[in-house]
Design a protein that fits this description.
The structure holds two protein chains of two kinds. Chain A is of the alpha+beta class. Chain A contains five helices and nine strands; from the N terminus they run βββαβββββααβαα. Chain A is globular and about 35 Å long. In chain B, β16 and β17 form a beta hairpin. Classes of the chains: A alpha+beta, B alpha+beta.
Chain lengths: 131, 380
């Protein structure tokens, strides 16, 4: 069973977002998403400094099975990316919400966060997709 | 719910992710496909291949029938096995050993109905192992043509099949088979023997040393557990595919099918042209194609940049879309993407592939990509 931590927000396209104490966000793909994709072999991350809008393609994860676009969960600016994924894309498989994080984002506003799914709603979405 | 092999419960207990494969519920992986791949290259892994179809052919004219049915020539099989599991001295080879042959079964147009392995047990009893996804059409085709030769076609769904592959695979099996171990150890590639109720063949689909073992379905779960206790790791279909791709082995339905001939599928070596007097199904069409030359060839591709080659991506030759990837994946051993592609005969070493809208430069190489754990490809 894939994990869905309650302190995170989720998108319908299987990204997660964590609100950090300083008001910035960390984001990645969910445990459910990595489980569906299987072993990661390449990760393509955005350039830090790039502006993104919610729902915009900003990264690609490529597994043994398929390539999949990753969408920015909110609008804002990419302030850092997880360089460790270049050499160890499997961090996403091992720890999707921790060491497998992908992007650090400075959001334009925190209002967009409210429109994202909470853990219960995301778990329900995953359960519905399974049927 | 699909068909289930006798090992289905064992797969679940070992944490398998189950997928549908040609109507069968089969393990895709047991956690990590890449780690499973490395285990086979470096140690030993076991595969449940019980979904494959085992067919026994019996009758006085079996050899004559197979000469006609198959594109390779069963007359290359001269050393019979022993039906009763007793050691027999035959053909000047090792006592009790029998020979196997890889071949295509063609339609009248030279298209590949299936690829299979044929085993010679006795002059009245040969065995075929054909693909799972092609079971129905294969049985129909074989049965249809067998009638004229009075050959009996018997599907052996009472048997299971387990492949054990990797540098330590044979030693692990030897621990389990008691007095048959020395005989098994002496088997060369494409030889097989009966050991009691086991049929042990020195064949595989990984490019590593190892066995494919047929055994009564009722014994499969016990044998699987004993292999596991001997340190052999279970391997899913995901790693099975990357292992066979690295080893340069075709997959039916992806790399060839009824619309392609062996000559367009890098399988020309499996066609026995001599003796010219042997009539086999598809021969006339194949000879016609050989005379004018096949327009397409199946080649290996290596992508030295980041990215993964995948089935059906287009191959660009001299700026023109001219070919297609038939099997593409990430090679865990090489750490880069590799593929088979069907391209025009005249394609040179350097071509491009359209990977998600980007044209990436790839090299055409001659498979295998990996053999016995080592790269066969020049590193760039």
């Amino acid at each position: 069973m894939s994990k869905t931590p309650t302190n995170l927000k989720y998108t319908k396209s299987h990204e997660w977002v964590e609100l950090l104490a300083d008001g910035t966000l960390r984001a990645g793909i969910t445990d459910h998403a990595q489980d569906l994709l299987g072993d990661m072999v390449f990760v393509e991350l955005p350039e830090p400094g790039r502006s993104v809008t919610a729902g915009q393609e900003c990264a690609v994860v490529e597994s043994v099975k398929a390539a999949s676009d990753v969408y920015s969960p909110v609008s804002g600016e990419i302030i850092a990316v997880n360089e460790a994924l270049g050499g160890s894309p499997d961090l996403i498989n091992k720890d999707a919400y921790g060491e497998g994080w992908m992007m650090h984002i400075k959001p334009s506003s925190t209002a967009e966060l409210d429109s994202l799914l909470d853990a219960n709603a995301y778990a329900a979405l995953v359960a519905a997709e399974a049927h | 719910m699909g068909h289930r092999t006798p090992l289905y419960e064992a797969h679940l207990a070992m944490g398998a992710k189950i997928v549908d494969f040609g109507g069968w519920d089969m393990p895709l992986h047991y956690g990590s496909q890449i780690e499973e791949h490395h285990s086979v290259r470096r140690a030993a892994g076991m595969f449940d291949v019980s979904h494959m179809t085992i067919v026994d052919l019996e009758g006085e004219r079996v050899r004559e029938f197979l000469r006609y049915l198959l594109a390779n020539n069963v007359d290359r099989l001269t050393q019979p096995g022993d039906a009763h599991g007793r050691a027999s001295v035959a053909g000047g080879g090792m006592p009790g050993a029998t020979k196997a042959l890889y071949t295509c079964m063609l339609n009248e147009k030279g298209g590949v109905i299936d690829d299979l392995i044929v085993y010679f047990n006795t002059e009245q009893w040969f065995r075929l192992v054909v693909n799972a996804a092609t079971r129905d059409k294969d049985l129909a085709w074989i049965t249809h043509h067998a009638a004229a030769f009075a050959v009996k076609v018997k599907e052996r769904d009472d048997l299971a099949m387990i492949a054990v592959q990797g540098p330590q695979a044979r030693a692990a099996v030897h621990e389990l088979i008691g007095t048959a171990a020395p005989q098994a150890a002496a088997l060369g590639p494409f030889y097989a023997l009966h050991a009691g109720e086991l049929f042990i063949a020195c064949t595989g689909y990984t490019g590593e040393d190892g066995y494919e073992i047929m055994l009564p379905a009722t014994q499969a779960a016990g044998f699987w557990q004993r292999l596991h206790k001997a340190g052999v790791r279970p391997i899913g279909l995901g790693a099975r595919d990357t292992l066979r791709l690295e080893a340069g082995m075709n997959l039916y339905g992806a790399d060839m099918d009824e619309g392609t001939t062996p000559l367009e599928s890098a399988l020309g070596w499996t066609v026995a042209w001599e003796p010219a007097s042997r009539d086999f199904i598809g021969r006339a069409a194949l000879e016609a194609q050989r005379r004018v030359g096949a327009k397409f060839k199946l080649v290996g591709l290596v992508l030295d940049d980041k990215g993964v080659l995948r089935n059906h991506q287009k191959v660009i030759v001299d700026g023109r879309e001219a070919g297609e990837i038939t099997s593409g994946s990430f090679s865990p051993t090489l750490g880069k993407a590799i593929a088979f592609a069907r391209v025009p005969q005249e394609a040179g070493e350097h071509v491009e592939v359209d990977v998600r809208g980007k044209l990436l430069a790839v090299r055409i190489v001659k498979p295998p990509f990996v053999r016995h754990g080592k790269s066969c490809i020049e590193q760039k």
